[in-house]
Amino acid sequence: MPEQDQLTLYNLHGCPYCAIVRLRLGQLGLGYILREQPQSRPERKEVIAVSGQQTVPVLVISRAGQPDEVLSDENDILRYLDERYAPRPAVEDSEPWSDADGRALKSAAENLADLGQQLQELAQGAAASGEIDRSNVLMAAAGHVSMAQRWAANQLQDS
């Protein structure tokens, strides 16, 4: 991470979306300031001041000499973190996908669809047994798996 970047995460204990963002920050080895927010939305004065909204997660990126960048949706935050900080594999632009690559991607897309369905079923079971936090985390994971499955399907159409 460039030294002038300072990351501040507005967080709510028990929020599955915040947990996903914290996990990704950790996976990328990024340091950040954690600003815990009150459970009651109207009391979240600090996050309202920086983002104009009561919901979390919110990530503020501060750079020397530039206005702060504010991201207020976990999907936007994850996408930003991956685009800015994740290592990039070397890709050869001139070589088209091989048939083996296409078969592997098709198999991955099918497996992701199955995984998404399994996560949704687990979430429904957790909700039925009153484990709301667990259910929320599982549903968030199912949503991310669904996004990955759609990406793989789009790649297959483009190749």
Any key phrases for this structure?
Glutaredoxin; 159 residues; 2 domains; 55% helix; alpha+beta; 4 strands; 5 helices
Q: In percent, how much strand structure appears in the residues?
A: 5-15%
Output the radius of gyration. 19 Å
Mean pLDDT equals 85
Instruction: Assign an overall shape.
Output: flat
Question: What is the H-and-E element order?
Answer: EHEHEEHHH
Side by side, the strands of the main sheet go 2-1-3-4
CATH superfamily (homologous) name of the largest domain: Glutaredoxin
Parts with pLDDT < 50 across at least 5 consecutive residues: none
Q: Please name the CATH architecture of the largest domain.
A: 3-Layer(aba) Sandwich
Instruction: State the total count of DSSP E strands.
Output: 4
Rounded to the nearest angstrom, the distance between the terminal CA atoms is: 33 Å
The computed structural class is alpha+beta
Q: What is the CATH level 1 assignment of the largest domain?
A: Alpha Beta
Count of DSSP-assigned helices: 5
Largest sheet: 4 strands, mixed
- Report the CATH topology name of the largest domain: Glutaredoxin
Percent helix, as a range, is 55-70%
Number of domains: 2
Could you please describe the fold and organization of this structure?
- There is one protein chain.
- With 159 residues, the chain is an alpha+beta fold.
- It folds into two domains: 6-85, 3-Layer(aba) Sandwich (Glutaredoxin); 99-158.
- Helix content is 55%, strand content 11%.
- It contains five helices and four strands; from the N terminus they run βαβαββααα.
- It has helices at 16-27, 45-51, 74-85, 99-128, 132-158; strands spanning 6-11, 33-36, 58-62, 69-71.
- A hairpin with a 6-residue loop joins strand 3 and strand 4.
- Helix 4 packs antiparallel against helix 5.
- It is flat.
- The two termini are 33 Å apart.
